[in-house]
Specification:
The chain is an alpha/beta fold and 265 residues long. The chain is built from 11 helices and 8 strands. The N and C termini lie far apart (39 Å). The mean pLDDT is 92. Bound molecules: S-adenosylmethionine.
């Protein structure tokens, strides 16, 4: 708890990241990931292997872009740094622990960005949604893009914020959380290099006897094409969020994300 408070105080974060609860979430993710390192190890290893395999098969390895890099637990950063000229880590929050671990920064760049492109607009600080990846999409040297367990995280902070700001919400489209997901999928489709998408898409809440208590569509009704592979991620095993309930997410991976024509609920 004290470590979490200290980390929150020490992390330089944009006001929007704080207002949308994302600094707090990054710190919570760090501490939960530490507590649950054994339970999460299989998920992280699977993500890292997938990305390493894809990277090894590319004809050119100039620039790799990791979207939602966070604590860099699910990407094989050392291998990427060894094989690419440059690795770009993009997230709305980079915790000091990550910044320290990544030193020295040779061939590594950290970009701090809101990848929904919508937060400043929602908060009344911009007239419209920004195009958060325009510069990287225009960069011809980007040979690999990995959206690393980011997609599901783009929607709920916006949903929570709209709930807390009903007057502002009334003036905005009702399906904004789903739009944040769809925008990211469209943004990914615009890259010329190889794009790999990894995301949790569903949460299952289960009792000790195996009975399913609840299922939550983390994609807010946005339909995705069939995935190449999927696996369970025990995000909150019994005792983490509730004594007699576990929360398991289904993670899907698309090895090569292509043009996406959209789809709603
Ligand atoms: C589940 S974590 C991803 C895990 C990360 N790849 C790792 O290895 O630790 C989701 C990440 O998405 C980031 N994120 C959430 N909303 C974002 C936004 N609007 N823009 C950019 N990053 C965001 C969070 O800060 C967090 O680091």
């Amino acid at each position: 708890m004290l470590a979490e408070l200290a980390l929150r105080a020490l992390t330089p974060a944009a006001p929007l990241a704080r207002r949308f609860g994302l600094l707090q979430e990054s710190v919570a993710l760090w501490s939960r990931g530490y507590r649950q390192r054994k339970a999460w190890a299989g998920h992280h290893a699977r993500c890292r292997k997938l990305v390493a395999d894809i990277a090894a098969g590319l004809p050119r390895r100039r620039k790799a872009v990791i979207l939602g890099s966070g604590l860099v637990r699910d990407v094989p950063l050392t291998a990427l740094r060894e094989s690419f000229d440059e690795v770009v880590l993009v997230d709305i929050v980079h915790l000091p622990l990550v910044r320290l671990r990544l030193w020295p920064r040779r061939n590594l760049r950290l970009l701090t960005r809101d990848l929904t492109g919508a937060m400043a607009w929602l908060a009344g600080e911009a007239q419209a949604r920004a195009d958060p990846l325009a510069d990287l999409i225009a960069d011809e040297a980007v040979d690999l893009v990995v959206s690393a367990n980011l997609l599901s995280q783009l929607a709920w902070p916006v949903a929570d914020w709209l709930e807390d700001h009903p007057e502002r919400a009334a003036a905005l489209p009702a399906d904004l959380p789903a739009r944040c997901i769809a925008w990211h999928l469209e943004d990914l489709s615009r890259f010329k290099g190889h794009v790999c998408l990894i995301s949790d898409v569903e949460m299952v809440e289960r009792e000790r006897d195996g009975a399913i208590h609840d299922r939550l569509d983390l994609m807010y009704g946005v339909k995705l094409p069939p995935e190449d592979e999927s696996w369970p991620w025990p995000v909150a095993p019994f005792g983490e969020a509730a004594r007699d309930r576990e929360f398991v997410h289904r993670v899907c991976a698309w090895r090569e994300w292509r043009e996406w024509r959209g789809g709603g609920a």
